[in-house]
Amino acid sequence: MRLDQMYQEIILDHYKHPHGRGLREPYEAEVHHVNPTCGDEVTLRVHLKGAGTEAEVADVSYDGQGCSISQAATSVLTDLVVGRTVSQAFGTMDSFVELMQGRGQVEPDEDVLEDAIAFAGVARYPARVKCALLGWMAFKDAVARANVSEADGTKVNGTEEQS
Amino acid sequence: MTTTALPLDVEAIRKDFPILARTVRDGKPLVYLDSGATSQRPRQVLDAERVFLETSNAAVHRGAHQLAEEATDAYEDARARIGAFVGVRADEVVFTKNATEGVNLVAYAMTNAATAGAESERFRVGPGDEIVVTEMEHHANLVPWQQVVQRTGATLRWFGVTDEGRLDLSNIDELINDHTKVVAFTHQSNVLGTVNPTAALVARAREVGALTVLDACQSVPHSPQDLHALGVDFAVFSGHKMLGPSGVGVLYGRHELLSVMPPFLTGGSMIEMVHMARSTFAPPPQRFEAGVPMTSQAVGLGAAVDYLSAVGMERVAEHEHRLTDAALRGLAEIPGVRVIGPTPDGDTGTVDRGGAVAFVVDGIHVHDVGQVLDDEGVAVRVGHHCAWPLHRRFGVPGTVRATFYLYNDLDDVAALLDGVRTAQRFFGTA
Lengths: 163, 430
Prior knowledge:
Distance between the termini of chain B: 23 Å
Strand order of the largest sheet of chain B: 4-10-9-8-7-5-6
Number of strands of chain A: 4
Radius of gyration of chain B: 22 Å
Shape of chain B: globular
Strand content of chain B: 15-25%
Distance between the termini of chain A: 31 Å
CATH topology of the largest domain in chain B: Aspartate Aminotransferase, domain 2
CATH superfamily of the largest domain in chain B: Type I PLP-dependent aspartate aminotransferase-like (Major domain)
Helix content of chain A: 40-55%
Strand order of the largest sheet of chain A: 3-2-1-4
Largest interface: A-B, 18 and 18 residues
Largest sheet of chain A: 4 strands, mixed
CATH class of the largest domain in chain B: Alpha Beta
Number of helices of chain B: 14
Shape of chain A: globular
Strand content of chain A: 15-25%
Helix content of chain B: 25-40%
CATH architecture of the largest domain in chain B: 3-Layer(aba) Sandwich
Oligomer: heterodimer
Structural class of chain A: alpha+beta
Number of domains of chain A: 1
Number of strands of chain B: 17
CATH class of chain A: Alpha Beta
């Protein structure tokens, strides 16, 4: 059944028992991203230790509402980036984005993507790719803003719509 | 479920729609319940476009060669038939790209009226003036008015929606007042299915001298309509939602209004005289059709209204009413499903209700419901359906929406209901 390819157990587990959910202090940047085609949204905070690409992603906390794919992908994100450096996190993100935009033709590397390899089936459904990337794009944006705020010592809030 | 035969012979009709015979997602028969977004096109429409392009294609309203004459005749003949289909004169039909462009055309004409001649004073909007819309509008009949008030300093106001999904008219005399310049509202909600009380709104708008703009996108394709009888000043609808091509829509305007309304897009075709420093404009509808227009699409839409007229719009409406009723009653029997919009058990029933059935399923995001339905071959729309404020009003981020047309039958309704139950089983909520 096609549904089982898309909704892998790992995805449903993350959806029902999300990791890292909830908004926490401290944080340097908070962003709010919306998927305008479906109205799903995520508010996401990042807490970095240090600055630049070698800063450590100390925490990613989030809240929002969305489908199983967007919620599970954000849950998986926290597993994959917290405790890593920004440059490692962005490397993982690049692999995830490549997987999601690969129309099901990209073979995921489990060493890099861990639970996120479960999203390979989602990549076959172009309409759902944005769902999977909602939290990841919010993370990317938040890190960029946090690094700016690090430089000038302010906390930032931002709202973006994916297009 | 009733055993009385449906008003339409769906099996015969479906033979005209080749796409409905295809399968999707590994061999599942297609159950197309997304006509509210776009309808499928019968062979008659596809043939009309192809025949036109193979025999008479030319730029209309220019050139004196035979093809130019034939193309212009085909284009104008389509205009006349489309006008007759909704009870209006040919010169009251302006072809636009779609209904969205139709609303924008009126909205920009009103802005442009600020610098146009005295004859278009009626369209001027400024500080102190009010534009009234409703909370159930499609973004196409909301955002352009937001932009008008932003450009002109006027104020936007709106009717609320009741819990049952009806327009709340309790404050109509206060909302539509002497400051009101425009009352823009949907004839039939693309989410709730609600058919709004046009007569009451038009009567009040006339009392205060406000112009009425009707979004008829979901009414004209699905029920017999006479825009003159409705008494609205303007109305818009899209070809692709009524068996016609995409890229063609209609703005209807009362002739006396169109004849004094400033243009929106300017350029070729829409002029009377052009000098280096100034120009004068053609009478309507040409004044509003700058540039070489969509032509095979207009011809195709002409064929679509012929097709619908041959089937009979009364019968189309009755047919869809039966399907809608079956869907609503079936969904009511599934625990955990909530319909957003009028239902048979509600206080206002399903009188004045069209064939859009929007619902949410407890514990399952609408996107996930849609995915399971898609897996079963059932094509519905999920999300906010370009009516985000309406969904906010009902406290939901989105809904699953099934919409019906003349090629759907009770088996399609059954497939929808089965698919919802499958989703509940898959996600373990039932």
